Amino acid sequence: MNRQKSFENNQPCLYLVATPIGNLDEITYRAVKILLEVDYIGAEDTRNTIKLLNHFNIKTKLISHHEHNLLHSIPKLINLMLEGNNIALVSDAGYPAISDPGYELVKEAIKNNINVIPISGASACLNALVVSGIAPQPFLFYGFLDHFDKKKKKELEKLKNYEETIIFYESPHRITKTLKLILEIFGDREIALCREISKKHEEVIRGFLSEVIEVSNNLKGEMVIIVSGNNNVIEEQIFEQTIVEHVNEYVNKGMSVKDSIKEVAKLRNLKKNEVYAEYHQKDE
């Protein structure tokens, strides 16, 4: 068990600072204060983060921390914190660790009894969810689907029966293809496609998948897809009897074995030949 009292000890801190997803005015006063006060800032892309820091006149030293240098950057950042330095971690936009680098560093910080503290801010998935017009809870945040169609189809097959609203991220050059795959596997569900959230060209397109696909080809900007849950899931009935016992129940009531098998198959949503094979296996 790890019990963290964030502000009641002298341990170094790893601050997970949410940054604006578009409009720079979305940053909180607390986030600016933390970025000014920490000893170092770990950044997904220092070229992007420096623009944010310059806007708020923040001079804190940057350290590169992205998915391709984790083996080098994680030990470096952990060692700096163990030496008593406080570090803020930022991604290019939104929350670190949500479809961005961060999780691995958080795990290592926890192992080393370093305080991990969230600094609230903008979130593309929540912004899109609340304006979608689709039931906001319960919801499942999935993030990016796999880039390869074969793997993407497998992911969608696993998700198609979820009754929760599902949130996906997608890039503009894959959006139409992804929407077509969702339509193919999920059916024509209600969705909201949100792009350029909080920026000048912010747009929310609400409708059914078949409708939104028609206008998705020339859209630009990072996308958030809100998909309504499956409202047609047949709840699986749990039977305490085995299939053989279930068939025998109807046989004992005077039904023929053939009709009993047919009835059990219907009740259990199984094929008749599956029930037949299971029942007659007892005679072998």
From TrEMBL:
Reactions the enzyme catalyzes: cytidine(1402) in 16S rRNA + S-adenosyl-L-methionine = 2'-O-methylcytidine(1402) in 16S rRNA + S-adenosyl-L-homocysteine + H(+)
EC number(s) stated in the UniProt entry for this protein: 2.1.1.198
The protein's enzyme class: transferase
Residue span(s) of domain Tetrapyrrole methylase: 14-212
Alphabetized CDD domains for the sequence: RsmI
Cellular component aspect of the GO annotation: cytoplasm
Keywords on record: Cytoplasm, Methyltransferase, rRNA processing, S-adenosyl-L-methionine, Transferase
Family annotation (Pfam families): TP_methylase
Gene3D superfamilies: Cobalt-precorrin-4 Transmethylase, Domain 1, Methyltransferase, Cobalt-precorrin-4 Transmethylase, Domain 2
Coiled-coil annotated spans: none
Gene Ontology MF annotations: rRNA (cytosine-2'-O-)-methyltransferase activity
Compartments (UniProt record): Cytoplasm
Keyword set includes Transferase: yes
Family indicated by similarity: Belongs to the methyltransferase superfamily. RsmI family.
Purpose of the protein: Catalyzes the 2'-O-methylation of the ribose of cytidine 1402 (C1402) in 16S rRNA.
Protein name as annotated: Ribosomal RNA small subunit methyltransferase I
Protein source organism: Thomasclavelia cocleata
Encoding gene (name): rsmI
